[in-house]
Amino acid sequence: MRAVVFERYGEAAEVREVADPRPAEHGVVVRVAATGLCRSDWHGWQGHDPDITLPHVPGHELAGVVEAVGPRVTGWRPGDRVTVPFVCACGTCPACAAGQQQVCERQTQPGFTHWGSFAQYVALDHADVNLVAVPDGMSFATAASLGCRFATAFRAVVQQGRVAAGEWVAVHGCGGVGLSAVMIAAAAGARVVAVDVAPGALDLARKFGAVHCVDATRTADPAQAVRELTAGGAHLSLDALGSPATCAASVNGLRRRGRHVQVGLLPSADGTTPVPMARALALELELLGSHGMAAHAYPEMLGLVCAGVLRPDLLVTATIPLDAAPDALAAMGTPAASGAGVTVIEPWS
Ligand SMILES: [Zn+2]
Ligand SMILES: [Zn+2]
Fold this sequence. Notes:
Residues 10-343 form the Enoyl reductase (ER) domain. By secondary structure, the protein is of the alpha/beta class. The protein has two domains: 2-148 and 293-346, Medium-chain alcohol dehydrogenases, catalytic domain (Quinone Oxidoreductase, Chain A, domain 1, Alpha-Beta Complex); 162-289, Rossmann fold (3-Layer(aba) Sandwich), CATH 3.40.50. The chain has helices at 39-46, 94-97, 127-130, 140-160, 176-187, 199-207, 222-229, 244-252, 277-282, 298-306, 325-331; strands at 2-5, 14-17, 28-36, 61-69, 81-83, 121-124, 132-133, 168-172, 191-196, 210-215, 234-239, 254-262, 286-289, 316-321, 342-346. Strands 3, 4, 5, 6, 7, 14 and 15 form a seven-stranded mixed β-sheet that branches. Strands 10-9-8-11-12-13 form a six-stranded parallel β-sheet, with helices on both faces. Helix 4 packs across helix 5. The protein is globular. It starts with a strand and ends with a strand. The model has no long low-confidence stretch (mean pLDDT 95). Bound molecules: zinc ion (2 copies).
C-alpha cells in the first residue's frame, strides 16, 4: 500500500510503498476512505509524543470500509462502513469496565502507538469495543472529521463541560476542535465567545454561531476581553489550542465557580504547564481534562449530526490526495493553519 512515512522528527515525510497491515486476532484492517489532518499529527511529527517510534505513519481521524477481520471479532464484517475514536480501548481494564474507554489503561492510538491512517489501509485493535458504524448518507469525509476533533469537542462541551442553555462559553483557539466546540455549544443554546489570533478562524467561528469574537493579537489581555463581553466571565471555557497562554487565558476568563476544560494538548519539555491556581481557589473554579470520547457515546452525537443540528461537514474546507499530505502536515505548524478549517486526505484519490 501507499503511505505517508517519516524517518526522523521534523524532517519531510514522504509517500512510499510499504507492506499492507494485517488484522490482530481482535482487530480489523480498514481500507481508508478519508482521514483528517490534525495538529496532533504535527506534534507527533515534531517528536512531542513519546508513544511514537520511527519510522512512522501518522493519522488518527479516519473513516473507511472494513477490509479484513481477525478471528475473534464478532460484530463486524468486511464491507462495513466504520469510523473509530482516536483512543482505541482494550475493553477489559478497570476504566473500560466502568464505561470510561476514553481513558483506557491499555489504550492504543492509530498514528501514535502504531502506524496510522495516512495510508491506504490501517489496522485497528479491539474492533468490537472501538468501531462505530457510519450512518447511511454520511460521507466518509464527514465521518473522518468526527473521530478526533468533533467527538473530542462534543465530550468537552457536553459531558465534561456540562454546557447549559443561556450560559456564556469561551473557546480559546478556533482550529478544528475549537470550531467544533463553538458549533456544539451554540447548538446547545449557549452564548459563545471565540478567541483566536487568525481573522479567518474568527470568521468561521462567527459563521458557526459565536456571538462575540476576540482577536488575541489586538488585545493585551484576551481573558479580560472575555470577562467584559460576558459581564464577569464565562461559565464554561475551553483551551482548544493547548498552550500556556491559552490555558491561562481560559482559566482567567471564567466567572465564579466556572468550569475550565483543557482540550488542546499541552506538550512541553518538562511535561508541566503553569495554571493560575490562585484564581481557581478564590473563585472555586473547576479544572477539567477531556480526552476523546468512547465509541459507545457516539450515538447521541451521530443523532444530532444526522438531524442536521450539528454540521461537522461544514468544517471540512479542503480535500487532498495522499501525495499532498506531507506538505499539508508541515503547514499545520503555522498559526494560519488554524483559520483554514479541516483538511481531509483521501488516500485512494
Ligand atoms: Zn481498557
Ligand atoms: Zn486529531
